[in-house]
Fold this sequence. Notes:
By secondary structure, this protein is α/β, with parallel strands linked by helices. It folds into 2 domains: 173 residues, HUPs (Rossmann fold, 3-Layer(aba) Sandwich); 117 residues, TPP-binding domain (Rossmann fold), CATH 3.40.50.1220. The protein is 29% helix and 26% strand. Helix 3 crosses helix 4 and helix 5 runs parallel beside helix 9.
Amino acid sequence: MKETEQYRGVWVFAERKDSQVIKGSLELLSLGRGLADELQVDLSVLLMGDRLGNIPEELIYYGADVVYVAENPIFERYTTSPYHRILCDLIRENKPEIVLFSSTDIGMDLAPRAACELKTGLSAHCVDLKVDKENRQLLQICPYFDCMATIVTDTRPQMATVQPGITSSPRRDDSRQGKTVRVEFKIEPGDIKIVEVEAKKEEDTEKIEEADVIVAVGRGLKDMGLAEELASVLGGVLGATQPITEAGMLAESRMIGQTGKIVQPKLYIACGISGAGQHIVGMQNSGTIVAINTDEKAPIFKVADYGIVGDVSKVIPALIESLKG
């Protein structure tokens, strides 16, 4: 028997905030359920925390077949050492062929450490996942410059972090049946390293991933005030490309793209954005996309429903005037 044939099953590492599983983890359940069904295996979830209540049952209702639960006060807040150790121990014991994480701060800390420990490959910030059923290979799709790369891993388990927002959460089905497994573990002295916990103050409280209308700004727009006024008239919020946030013109929380936020508003207006691949990944599933750019060959027009070739500093005032009637 080949070593890879010893590995079966799809696993999801579930994150929670307070008493709820985060949206990105629910989206992973949707992706994982599809992969597990194609491979005809169980979908398992690892859940760690304290006072978890009915969260394990909820995960079953959302698509899990098995939920591994590690419950202890030490897991109330994420700390690398115990999470990493328990995850790796469970993977060694159960040998899943696929393990998925959300591309959050926690996922991007835990996944590469686990991959290194387990001597396997990891693809980060995937925007789609497919499976080659014949070879049982996970096809991990990630932006690479201005194209999409499909990555395969020969080692097992096949591990990937997935960008939040690329798919919808699964439907809740309270008739689903599943199994909850309580994980036995021993706390090691080195597992507890928290010295102080300070809540990070949110300077930007608007969540662009929840907005119905986004006016996104690129380097082609020099007057930020125009975009702000257009967003105000439309009842929307501002978004930005990576160069804009790196220049400090808008907060990093406004960055849309592979390494920023994945958004799906009803209306997305791209102002002076050429359309680099990593940005398009973050907004291509918007309801209606309007692009404004002086370059008629800009890549952004390939995903736009409506394109306006012109000077954005002149087009936006005309739009505002028309909208105000």
